[in-house]
């Protein structure tokens, strides 16, 4: 029992602060010289990471709805759950579409996030309007660039 407690505590602490998995008998991997070009050609040929600065600024705006704005009354929870279930049940939806943000507050639904195509955007919009009513949906979904 004492060994099991010690093991659990060790795993917990390593999860919090990180543990060095190198042993003293193995030399640490050397870092490349600052004058040496990286040898990974896949990294050199890949596109630069997208700049999400504008999206991040927009999301910090107090008027932008986030999942934190979801009301917890049963009616709003049921609306969100019904829309989510229908989106997940729809054939051919991408992972992005399945993970779109659905935020309901006082019966008003806000849809946010990237989807892979205009067809997915329209399909999620139609589902939300069918559940919440056409005047109760703010579709802010964005078609992700290819």
Question: Could you describe the 3D structure shown?
Answer:
- The protein has a domain at 74-146: 2-Layer Sandwich (Histidine-containing Protein, Chain: A).
- α4 packs antiparallel against α6.
- It is an alpha+beta fold and 146 residues long.
- The termini are far apart.
- The chain is built from 6 helices and 3 strands.
- The protein has helices spanning 2-17, 41-45, 53-60, 74-89, 95-98, 118-132; strands spanning 101-105, 108-115, 137-143.
Topology, pairings included?
Layout: H1 2-17, H2 41-45, H3 53-60, H4 74-89, H5 95-98, E1 101-105, E2 108-115, H6 118-132, E3 137-143
Parallel strand pairs: 2-3
Antiparallel strand pairs: 1-2
Helix pairs in contact: 4-6
What Rg, in angstroms, do the CA atoms define?
A: 23 Å
**Amount of helix:** 40-55%
* Gross morphology: globular
Strand elements, count: 3
Task: Jot down its keywords.
44% helix; three-stranded mixed beta sheet; 6 helices; alpha+beta; Histidine-containing Protein, Chain: A; 146 residues; globular
In short:
The protein has 146 residues and is an alpha+beta fold. It has helices at 2-17, 41-45, 53-60, 74-89, 95-98, 118-132, and strands spanning 101-105, 108-115, 137-143. The protein has a three-stranded mixed sheet.
């Amino acid at each position: 029992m004492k060994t099991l407690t010690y093991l659990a505590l060790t795993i917990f602490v390593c999860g919090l602060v990180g543990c060095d998995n190198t042993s003293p008998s193995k030399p640490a991997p050397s870092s490349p010289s600052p004058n040496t070009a990286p040898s990974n050609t896949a990294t050199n040929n890949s596109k630069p990471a997208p700049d999400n600065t504008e999206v991040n600024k927009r999301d910090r705006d107090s008027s932008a709805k986030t999942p934190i704005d979801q009301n917890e009354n049963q009616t709003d929870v049921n609306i969100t759950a019904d829309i989510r279930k229908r989106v997940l049940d729809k054939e051919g939806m991408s992972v992005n579409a399945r993970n779109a943000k659905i935020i309901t507050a006082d019966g008003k639904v806000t849809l946010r996030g990237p989807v892979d195509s205009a067809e997915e955007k329209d399909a999620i919009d139609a589902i939300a309007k069918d559940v919440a009513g056409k005047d109760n949906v703010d579709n802010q979904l964005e078609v992700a660039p290819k």
